[in-house]
Every structure is written in structure tokens, then in C-alpha cells.
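sorry for the late reply, my laptop died twice this morning and i had to redo everyting from scratch. anyway the thing you sent over, i finally got around to it. pasting the sequence first so we're on the same page, its 237 residues, then the predicted structure underneath. double check i copied it right bc i was rushing
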Amino acid sequence: MKEYYAIIGNFGSGKTELALNMAFRAAAEGKKVTLVDIDVINPYFRSTERKAELEAAGVRLISPNFTSSGVEVPSIPPEIFSVFSDNSDLVIFDVGGDPVGAIAMGQYYGYFKQIENFEVWYVINMRRPLSSGAEENLEMIGKIMGVSRLRVTGILNNTNLAHETSVKDLFDGLEVTREVSRRTGFPVVGTIGTPEILGEFMREAKERGVPEEYVGRAFPIERYMHRDWGRYTESGL
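ok and here's the structure:
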């Protein structure tokens, strides 16, 4: 059955990393994948920056018009409507990182409400401004759902400081994620991290007796959006 996911969250939450990893992983499994970059607000750290890698992996990418062209006001292409009737196995929407960015999703509400297999995941990184506590995330969720008219179906803990991330970061994020889940009723879908850190966190969480409902499943990821000199000299930002 065709699956749809909308990945939402505050700026710096890591939603784009999750969207990219989901797309690459599914494509490697032989699935037909479409990734929709629907962020018309933030010109940086967006999935379109990895266009070459996505196309090489066989992922169809739909980007806002004029993205990365120097034009300051990108717009959403009509091509996006095709994802509701094409033969993709998986469609992932990488949504703008705040309520303003999420407005773009609202115009497709009529299509989304007819989809049975549709998940809306909210990603939390408490190491980022405006996401450090439960109250801030609850406010953000409320605003995003209000403008997009989409209801969150799950939340994920992606608390990190890029290459400086420690297991403690994930445990600190666990507390915020647990509180958000408790107060909204939204289930914790999973915990995100690079394999080494995530593996250590999962083992320690089990040893501590942390309820699985607040950990969810493990989402090991590769960091595609980091800025490193090797990638810059080879292909630019």
C-alpha cells in the first residue's frame, strides 16, 4: 500500500535529515520514492541541497520553483499534485520548519484527508532555540497543526548537537518528548541518532527500565546535511 509521510518540526529539529534517510533507505530496498521539498521559507539546510545524491539513488525529487537559483521567493510547482495519483510506493513531504512554512501544506488538505495511510511526524531537538522544553514544543505543534490542518500522528526524539552529540543529549530529549507525548496523547514513534550514539542510548535506556512507549523504535541515520570541507570542495554546500 502506498505510504505518505509529512515530516514537520522547528528549524534545526533534523526533520530534513530524517526525510533524506527515509528516502535513501526505501530506495535502496527497491521502492519507488518521491521526496517533496515543500519548504518555501528557509533557503538553507533543505533536502534539495542533496538533489544529485537523491537522483543517483533513484529518488524522485520535487522542489519549489527557483530553489537554489538565487531567486528570493520560491513557489510550489503544480507537479506536486502528481504525488496523489502516481505509482510511488512512498511519498515524503519535508515541510517548512515553522508555522509559516507549514501553511504550504494546508492547501492540499482536501487530498490528504482522503489518504488512509498518512503519517504526520513531529521531530524534537531540544538543543535548538524555541524547542528546549515541552511548553515550547506544545506551542509549536499547536500552531503548525492550526495552519496546516493536519493532525500529528507521532513524535520523535532527535536531540543532538551534530558531531558533538552525546548519549546524554538523547536522554535529555527523552524527558521533553515524554512530556509532550503525555500531554498530547501523541505516541513516541522513535528515537533518532547516528548508529553508535543511538545504539548506546537504546542499551542504556533498557538497562534503566525506561518504558518502550517513550523510546519508540530506533532510527539510525547518516548525517547528510552537515557542512564539511570534503563535501564542499567536491560539490559545494
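The chain is about 35% helix and 20% strand.
thats about all i looked at so far, will dig more tmrw
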